[in-house]
Predict the structure.
Amino acid sequence: MNPIFADLPTTVFEVMSRLARETGAINLGQGFPDSPGPEDVRRAAADAVMTGWNQYPPMMGLPELRQAVASHYAHHQGVELDPEREVMVTSGATEALAGALMALIEPGDEVVLFQPLYDAYLPLVLRAGGVPRFVRLQPPHWRFTQEMLEEAFSPRTRVVLFNNPLNPAGVVYGREDMELLARFCIRSGAVAVCDEVWEHVVFDGLRHLSMLSIPGMRDRTVKIGSAGKIFSLTGWKVGFVCAAPEILRVLAKAHQFLTFTTPPNLQAAVAYGLGKDDAYFEGMRRDLQRSRDRFADGLKERGLAVLPSAGTYFLNLDIGPLGETDDVAFCERLVRQHGVAAIPVSAFYAQDPIRSVVRFCFAKGDEVLDGALARLGSVARQAA
């Protein structure tokens, strides 16, 4: 067996979800909303199954979806794309990431990764033959500096894998951060593979800034989006890849031998959804921000230290003030003794992990969040 995968442990997400099922705990660990998603988009998918094409769609994606992606990003992010030469549809963002890394990395190439990181990144980089170089981010602000990038980049850097907004930290990087990272990419000749799946899930009046729009990065950026995150339909697995033609041409070769194509009814529904008016996207952000604030305020009222969250479905708790130094042990006690499942953020580090932060998903109904808060009321009291 290939040791990269054979030696991987069971993910902490599965461990905590299993414990939640076994104990009847409220599961705020795994990151999915408990709403069914927008009805009109779901109906569009159902209609497409009954009346549309159900055989192989084009390998690059339905033309109407590729056009919808280009129009959507032009409207919402000011990024102009040629739908025929610069947009591809994949079976989810993880497939897009795998294909991009396999297409761009040769054995021995160095890849800059920012910790905390989505747990699929490192195995995919290693399987492609890449050599990881880590930038270790820390709470509460999770910012990187020029000195940190100087240490991570080298003449062998070929790819930078950058998640913005950043899961699990909930930070949204702005122009100053992006331009700093862009300078290092340009200097080293690296391609930035940008996981931008949370691009619409940003709060407090912020707007997502794509690396494609940063000067000097238009021809060295791979932008990856996710319909699952945009429409809160995480099981649909419809991803978008946007890149300059000379990059996308090679990424398409990897894609055709991974999944080749994506269910055409879902593609048709996503094409419809991307054309929804601004009110839908504003309302989605407003509703999630309200849930974030409800949960954050409840945690603070119970004497718990909440870290800022400007985007994603996630809110982090600093357990250091509780005298805790092991986030894994804390999460196990939390699910067994208090009936709430969370995720230890150390699981998102490959080396030298932060062990004082745990992550909750707040993309839930009020009754679920309030139920979790009721169970968490004794956590701070027990620590005192």
Residues 43 and 69 are 20 Å apart (CA to CA). The first strand starts at residue 26 and ends at 27. The longest helix spans residues 278-301. The chain has a mean pLDDT of 96.
